[in-house]
Structures are given as C-alpha cells and as structure tokens.
Amino acid sequence: MKLLETDVLLVIDVQNDFTPGGRLAVTAGHEVVPVINALAEKFQHVVLTQDWHPERHSSFASSHPGKQPFSQTEMHYGPQTLWPEHCVQGTHGAEFHEDLDIPRAELILRKGHRPGIDSYSAFFENDRKTPTGLNGYLRERGFQRVFCVGLAFDYCVRYSAEDAFKLGYDSVVIESATRAIDLEGSAEATRHSFRRGGITLVPHIG
Length: 206
Known about the structure:
six-stranded parallel sheet, 8 strands, 22% strand
C-alpha cells in the first residue's frame, strides 16, 4: 500500500495504564510499541491521542457505589462500561509508554477530560455528537486517509476508525499495531463491524 502526502497515522492511547502493569492493561499491549515506532518512520504525518481523565471520572466503577469494574451502567448518553480508574491526569499511568518514540508527531490530542462523559473515539465523546476537534484539524490540514493503530483494538481504535469513515475519510486499521481487550467477544465483533462498515483492516504496512 503506497503512502501519500494526504495520509495521517493516528496513534491511539499508547499509555502506561493500557500496557502490562497498568490499571487497565491490554494483554500484550506493549508489543505494539516497536511496531508503531517503525510505522511512524514511514508516515509524513502523525497524530497521537491520550486518554486524560480527571479524578473520579464518571466512567470509573469507583464513582458508582456498588458497581464493579467491567459492569454496565446507563448514563445520560446511553450504555457505558465502567472501568477501573485509569489514565488520571498527571499520573504515571496517563503518560505515554516510555518506549514510544515519535518525535515528529504534529499533534497530541487529549480526550476523556470531561468529568461526566467518556470518550473512546478520537473524534467524538461517547454521546456520539460532542466533537474533540480532531476532525477540524484533519480537514484544515487536507488529510484524506486515516491509519489507526494503538490501544485498544476493540474500543478506542474501533470507534476512531468507524468515526473516521463516517466523516468521509478512507479509514484503515493496521492490525499488527493494535491489541484488543476482548471483553465478551468484542474483538471479533469489531472485525465484523469493520467488514460491514467499510473500514479496511490490514495486517501490516510493508
């Protein structure tokens, strides 16, 4: 697959809390780091996202007495999975993985900072209508194709890729550069959604 000037690599949430030893560790999440570093060398343009929650964020199970991590609750915007506390602003867990090495990244976009609403997608909060500002940035820059990598495949990568497609970008997910939480079959559900929804899933970029 030939890369173009109008392509952008979107590196999603490669943070300590999503890698082994973190508060919401994705199995083998650290394995994506060298793959992403190598990919970033191939792209002219790279954007990073960072989960950036305030303390006592509404998506934390600890903010809902009697609720356990990975259970479901109903929020004002719809169903919400409740998570262990993770990626709290200013903590080690919220920092990028120490081996992530992308000095040429042109933008770091922080999401999930609104206390009352979670944000999986790099483009919208979980109400599916409050924008993060990323679409405006990409439009102003003239990008046309978005390559999504990072953590986790079946949550933030999935929603970012699907929103990119809905917004009119060619949307590609590089599977070797992402790992899944796989909560109740969510990884296979993501692949099925991609097949139905027009997102291109490739094993790697040569």
